[in-house]
Design goal:
Rossmann fold, 2 domains, five-stranded antiparallel beta sheet, 27% helix, globular
Length: 202
């Protein structure tokens, strides 16, 4: 029954019409993975595999390829040594229009001018969570930062989904999105309550 409901939620979010989607990622000579061609479907995709199979390496290279944290008119498509990838090609679908970004032999090209600045955030829980917890707990002006952000308050449906997945009966969930904080483009900070118990991301 639990797996069936998870499948239902997955079908719901995966069939949603997302305005920006990555359709395809082609790469050459990624360390530990070699070369390959991955086709994505829908706005949410899952990359699965055993420990050490290269999931994090692949996601790191995708993040490098989609490093669009600049206004598009000033956009420079940059290779990163951390990616250890000789070349790549990314196909994006933005509001129904296709754009191709490529990096080959140190030369960056793209087809078409992206209609707006796109922001890409990568969050790897096993690495980022301990770092963020430390930052939240040691930042003196965290409350001041939170006061400048209007939180997103989860509705009954979202709370129901999280209650089911996590196994806690949440009374309220607030999500603050802190921009350009802690050397990251976007950081989520949570405040939740379970009955009369309140706690947050610290």
């Amino acid at each position: 029954m639990r797996e069936a409901r998870i499948d239902d939620y997955w079908r719901k979010v995966s069939s949603r019409k997302y305005p920006t989607q990555m359709k395809r990622f082609t790469f050459s000579n990624i360390a530990g993975l070699g070369s390959g061609d991955i086709t994505f479907s829908g706005g949410i995709n899952a990359i699965c595999g055993p420990n050490g199979s290269g999931k994090s390496t692949l996601l790191s290279c995708i993040h490098c390829a989609l490093n669009l944290s600049y206004p598009c008119q000033d956009f420079t498509f940059r290779a990163s040594s951390a990616c250890s990838c000789d070349s790549w090609s990314v196909i994006l679908d933005v509001n129904g229009r296709e754009y191709i970004l490529t990096h080959t032999e140190g030369i960056n090209t793209r087809t078409g001018e992206l209609p707006e600045a796109l922001r890409v955030a990568s969050l790897e829980p096993s690495r980022e969570s301990p770092y963020l917890l430390h930052q939240f707990r040691t930042t003196d002006n965290l409350e001041e930062q939170l006061e400048t952000v209007e939180p997103s308050i989860s509705g009954n449906e979202e709370r129901g989904i999280l209650t089911y997945l996590v196994g806690k009966d949440y009374s309220s969930i607030k999500i603050y999105e802190l921009e350009d904080s802690y050397d990251m483009p976007l950081v989520p900070f949570f405040e939740v309550s379970v009955k009369d118990v309140f706690y947050d991301s610290r």
